[in-house]
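Hi support team,

I submitted a single chain yesterday and got back a structure, but I'm not sure I'm reading the token output correctly. Could someone confirm the output below corresponds to the sequence I sent? I've pasted both exactly as they appear in my results page.

Thanks,
R.
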Amino acid sequence: MGKKLKLSSLLTLVVVLISTGCTQKYPGVPEKYHADLDIAFQSAEDNKKELEAALKAVPDSQKEAMAFLIANMPQRDLGNLSAQFLKDNVEYAYKAREAFSWAKAVPDSVFFNEVLPYASLNERRDNWRKDFFNRFYPYVKDAKSMKAAIDSVNKNIAAEVDVEYNTKREKPDQSPYESMEQNMASCSGLSILLTDAFRAVGIPSRIAGTASWHDDRGNHSWNEVWIDGEWYFTEYYPSGLNKSWFLNDAGKADKNDPKYAVWASSFKKTGNPFPLVWDMSIKYVPAVNVTDRYVQLYREQQKAKVASGELVELEVIMLKNDKCSLVGDDRMAVNVDVFKGEEQIGGGRTSGPTQDMNDFLTLYVDKNATYTFRFTNAQGEIVNVDKKVKEEPVQVRLYMGVEE
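Hi R., thanks for writing in. Yes, this is the structure output for that exact sequence:
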């Protein structure tokens, strides 16, 4: 009887070892990734060996991270990225996680999706992780919090990478090194640079943007950072967390229209594509709709500032010419950008002849300051109109120069 029990126990142990041990399909990888890995390896075709080598090369503590990347990467990467590229990326992502206290506190779900990824949008895949870790480590090594680290990276990145805003750049979706080679980038390229810098030192970051503002004045991209469970926005040229000229526009976004919604990039699949306005046929960059947060934030900030007397209401109306009255037919719907000095603080589209007579382009601005209103007139000329705003609400009348 004793021998039978021993034999039975031995068989049970063998079964357990077979089901959990070295015969496991993907050793060290949680089962929830297995089906997606099967699909990824099959899709990789000739590059399958590189991906398999990458998964085997990392230590057990990093296997889930590598599995996450492979399971979620787009087809272009499955067929092209090398084992060494992926191994370097994962190794230095974990090096940052171990180096900084704030990075250690980031949950795996956020670390995998907003720190670990090697790319944000459809940019060229540069192997930037080790270089950027070494570049930005000195700026954050003494930071006592993630917020302090964010502030330090934000303030120093332009000088460190020697890249400035310039629309003469070669393309909007530049990789970090493409922008650094040219010393210039537009908002999307700058956002890619900043997110990579944040991720290099363990700060969760992603790119946010809209395909078009509510009044069709164009698109914009910026950055978001995660602090203690909440997302905040910032930009390459910092003005502070959740502070920027574009909040006046983002606060009027429409979550129900993909064109006018605010989206945040994701690496894991979401079922929604990020709007890449330079090539709307690209659908492999996942995104989440974050419009509600911007609308709510805008309302809260404006309400607080008006109540405190910090801001004054400013209405903008566009008329055909300086002979027009304020009757409805004289009004024109035109895009107007508003600047305070060199900084754009807002803008929007004026109300046209079919809108309610009490409907104006309304901004809330600082008192006792001069603002410049920029628009293109009927002759195709760019017009700048300066207006001094004092203590009381004011209406600014602009004229398109339409000939009668």
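A quick pointer for reading it: The chain has a mean pLDDT of 91. Let us know if anything else looks off.

Best,
Support desk
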